[in-house]
Design a protein that fits this description.
Number of domains: 4
Strand order of the largest sheet: 1-2-3-4-5-6
Number of strands: 18
Largest sheet: 6 strands, mixed
Strand content: 25-35%
Helix content: 25-40%
Distance between the termini: 81 Å
Order of helices and strands: HHHEEHEEEEHHHEEEHEEEEEEHEEHE
């Protein structure tokens, strides 16, 4: 803008000069003096801007942020002790927010401690036991050009009982705001369902948890992992970030001992992308290799990725071939809509799924209770449509293979799909039924 002003001024001077011949010498001197002053002023202003930009870059550089100062909020009396530490980065946007968060936590703990002191009627805190709350930084703090991610280890001791807590702080350095899990998932084009499945697989098969689960995962352990990861049981907002991964935190009470405390499950973004490409999870529109499956029913359930099924009611497990992964679904119902010699208490139906279509039933397992083993074998061993494959605790377990498939699957262009369904039906007797075990 100042350059434009200077240019306009110079043009005006050129226009006026011919009409002012009597004062040309004075005008030229004054003009040169004025232009010189303008140039000097512009140079100074430009230098100031450049110096300010350099200074700003230094303030928010990684090296500058890494040179943080530790701050601490403390309170202590005979019965209570509060200690909360947090970093000061000398970068106003993050410092202001961090200070507000930690001051709020500090005041909440002071109110909590005062309330406990007023309400406590027994001499529960006598002796060397204090009511303590400590919040310390787990170093190193992750500092990148894009974000800062911090994990705070928090402990609360109430008399004789201690609790491990924890909190995280993730800050976007570009927009100067707290990073939410929704923002992270959107950036990586994934969903909570994908994260839930990958966390489960890491807990079940990951080497990092081999010692905690005491070797290979048992059927009972796997069932508990699935329960821990059910919607509503897992807080996805409890996370930290690195440049290559996201780490979710939880104390898995049903999986590990209390002494193991809060554990972190790390998922590499490269593994997340590879998994989504390979398995076509629920967060994507599942596309079929076939252009038109108009004759098949739509499928809106969950496609199974695991190569086994464990029944929580009757404690049996069956296994599936590798080719079944991501190709089948499970439906469980009480009783049965088919007639039987004995009353059926439970039916588990396994079906083939292609994209968003239900291709057909592969087989069903039916459970009948209170039937002696000899009676069960005599009635179902040679049944043409229902075959007994196991008995356990006076319960009979029968298998019913698929009775047929859509006529279109016997012809092109869907013949390969028909072969695939027929192959899965053949697997039932050859591989699956023989793998049954009981807890």
């Amino acid at each position: 803008m100042k350059f434009a002003v200077k240019s306009i001024f110079f043009l005006i001077v050129l226009i006026i000069l011919p009409a002012c011949q009597n004062h040309i010498s004075n005008t030229e001197v004054k003009s040169e003096s004025t232009l010189s002053k303008i140039d000097k002023t512009e140079t100074k202003e430009k230098n100031k801007v450049e110096e300010k930009e350099i200074a700003t870059e230094e303030v928010i550089s990684i090296d500058s942020l890494a040179n943080y100062e530790m701050k601490k909020l403390e309170y202590e009396d005979e019965l209570y002790e509060i200690e909360i530490e947090y970093p000061k980065f000398s970068y106003a946007p993050i410092d202001k927010l961090l200070q507000a968060v930690k001051n709020k936590l500090f005041e909440e703990q002071k109110v909590f401690e005062t309330y406990e002191e007023e309400e406590e009627e027994e001499d529960y805190f006598l002796g060397d036991y204090k009511h303590r709350f400590n919040s310390i930084i787990r170093e190193p703090i992750v500092i990148t050009k894009d974000f800062i991610s911090i994990y705070f280890e928090e402990y609360m001791v109430m008399g004789y009982t201690g609790f491990e807590l924890g909190s995280t702080f993730n800050f976007n350095l570009h927009n100067n705001h707290m990073i939410t899990i929704d923002e992270v998932l959107q950036q990586h084009s994934t969903t909570e369902d994908t994260m839930r499945e990958l966390i489960s697989l890491e807990l079940i098969y990951g080497e990092n948890f081999e010692e905690l689960r005491y070797g290979d995962a048992s059927e009972n352990y796997i069932a508990k992992v699935r329960e821990e990861m059910e919607p509503g049981n897992f807080d996805f907002s409890f996370f930290t970030l690195t440049e290559e991964s996201i780490i979710f935190y939880k104390q898995f009470y049903s999986l590990f001992s209390n002494s193991d405390g809060i554990v972190g499950v790390e998922l590499k973004w490269s593994d997340v992308e590879a998994y989504m490409e390979e398995n076509a999870l629920d967060n994507q529109d599942l596309e079929s290799d076939y252009d038109d499956l108009y004759f098949l029913s739509p499928f809106e359930g969950k496609i199974q990725q695991e190569l086994f099924y464990t029944d929580p009611d009757y404690g049996f497990t069956i296994e599936f071939p590798e080719s079944w992964k991501g190709k089948y679904s499970i439906e469980v119902e009480e009783g049965s809509d088919m007639s039987s010699i004995k009353e059926v208490s439970k039916t588990i139906t396994f079906s083939m799924v292609e994209g968003s279509k239900l291709v057909g039933t592969i087989f069903s397992i039916r459970v009948m209770e209170d039937i002696p083993e000899e009676e069960a074998w005599s009635q179902f061993e040679y049944g043409p449509f229902e075959t007994l494959f196991a008995t356990h605790n006076n319960n009979a377990f029968t298998v019913i293979p698929a009775g047929g498939m859509s006529a279109e699957l016997y012809e092109e262009p869907y013949l390969d799909l028909g072969y695939a369904l027929s192959g899965m039906v053949s697997d039932v007797q050859e591989f699956i039924v023989d793998t049954v075990t009981f807890e």
